[in-house]
Structure to design on (396 residues):
């Protein structure tokens, strides 16, 4: 079974059950065959933003990130003059996504933990129907949206289309992660979140850092600045536990190539900035932030662990919070962190619902229960594995 062409089994009755209006066309195509200009315009028109499905980010991932290359895309075009892209979901086979040998397609993973598809705002339900039809036309019996926003407008459109056609989406797993309301006053938000005692301790740590020089935040936006800041980020990320675990981006050539390409390309579009906290001339911590519309996405954080007792990652996050809250263009920020993240959860107190959703593509399809059961079994085994590892760490 290939990633781009599942066995075509859709019957005429299946296709008629969710026919796409004549002004729309949909298909499964190679990701790098898409018109990048149309892709960028779709991101601007999307009913719900996703920084990790921006064209320059996803194409960089698809170009070199190990295990994430060779993805396809479910694509929907509006047959206007000129024709334009109205819906997009990067996709791979269920075998590629989860090593499950059943006929389904899943969201292609963009390295960041958000796979919400891009759906045009003005034609949301029509574009959503087109995405389902593209998956059906490729021979898939189900579409798996992994790590998608469960309460957002894109999921609402997909759910409405599915239910209208007698197809009932099923949530495989869900969780809530930290989110920032950037419309709030930063100082009030931080005081309410952390309390005066914790903020006093953080100020004491900052004063200790000031013994090295003035503590200040650099924000790189121009492509050349971002290219230089990316190198600083990569060095900081590889200076501590991530390098010891072998997961720092710079330790894998394909990952390093992807992040260098993506950050600069997005900076050229005004969609990426890198924030770096300094003490004098010494970089203490750096973070990559993607931007789409009124939303920001906090990708990764790298810190110099020589200064760990002064909480450089927390200090950077406090400054990033102030920076985002002061930006009139940003209304919210997705931490894209794990649901139990010990650093950012106490600071960004908003919560965003994220989960994996199975959407059947045919009514009463006997294959779908097998797909659902396989996904639930996988999720259960992963949960048991995580608990076992946690217990072993506690005993060591």
């Amino acid at each position: 079974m290939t990633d781009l062409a599942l066995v075509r089994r859709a019957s005429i009755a299946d296709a008629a059950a969710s026919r796409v209006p004549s002004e729309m066309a949909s298909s499964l195509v190679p990701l790098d065959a898409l018109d990048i200009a149309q892709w960028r315009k779709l991101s601007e028109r999307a009913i719900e933003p996703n920084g990790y499905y921006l064209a320059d980010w996803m194409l960089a991932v698809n170009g070199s990130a190990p295990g994430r290359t060779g993805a396809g895309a479910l694509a929907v075009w509006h047959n206007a003059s000129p024709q334009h892209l109205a819906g997009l979901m990067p996709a791979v086979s269920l075998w590629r996504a989860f090593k499950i040998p059943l006929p389904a397609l899943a969201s292609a993973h963009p390295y960041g933990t958000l796979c919400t598809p891009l759906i045009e705002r003005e034609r949301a339900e029509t574009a959503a129907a087109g995405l389902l039809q593209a998956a059906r036309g490729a021979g898939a019996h189900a579409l798996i949206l992994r790590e998608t926003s469960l309460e957002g407008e894109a999921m609402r459109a997909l759910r409405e289309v599915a239910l209208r056609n007698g197809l009932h989406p099923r949530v495989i797993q869900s969780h809530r992660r930290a989110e920032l309301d950037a419309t709030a006053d930063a100082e009030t938000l931080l005081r309410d979140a952390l309390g005066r005692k914790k903020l006093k301790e953080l100020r004491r740590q900052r004063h200790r850092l000031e013994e090295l020089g003035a503590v200040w935040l650099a924000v790189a936006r121009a492509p050349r600045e971002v290219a230089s800041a990316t190198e600083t980020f990569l060095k900081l990320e590889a200076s501590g536990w991530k390098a010891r675990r072998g997961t720092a981006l710079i330790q894998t050539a394909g990952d390093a190539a992807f992040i260098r390409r993506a950050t600069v390309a997005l900076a050229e579009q005004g969609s990426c900035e890198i924030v770096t906290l300094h003490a004098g001339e010494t970089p203490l911590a750096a973070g990559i932030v993607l931007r789409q519309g009124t939303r920001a996405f906090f990708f990764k954080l790298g810190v110099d662990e020589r200064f760990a007792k002064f909480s450089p990652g927390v200090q950077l996050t406090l400054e990033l919070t102030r920076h985002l809250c002061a930006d009139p263009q940003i209304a919210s920020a997705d931490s894209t962190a794990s649901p139990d993240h010990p650093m950012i959860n106490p600071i960004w107190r908003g919560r965003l619902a994220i989960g994996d959703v199975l959407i059947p593509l045919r009514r009463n399809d006997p294959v779908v229960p097998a797909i659902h059961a396989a996904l639930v079994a996988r999720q259960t085994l992963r949960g048991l594995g995580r608990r076992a590892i946690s217990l072993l760490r506690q005993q060591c």
About this structure: The CA atoms of residues 53 and 110 lie 7 Å apart. Residues 183-330 form a domain with the Aminopeptidase fold (CATH 3.40.630). Confidence is low (pLDDT under 50) at residues 1-18. The chain has two domains: 22-174+355-395, 183-330.
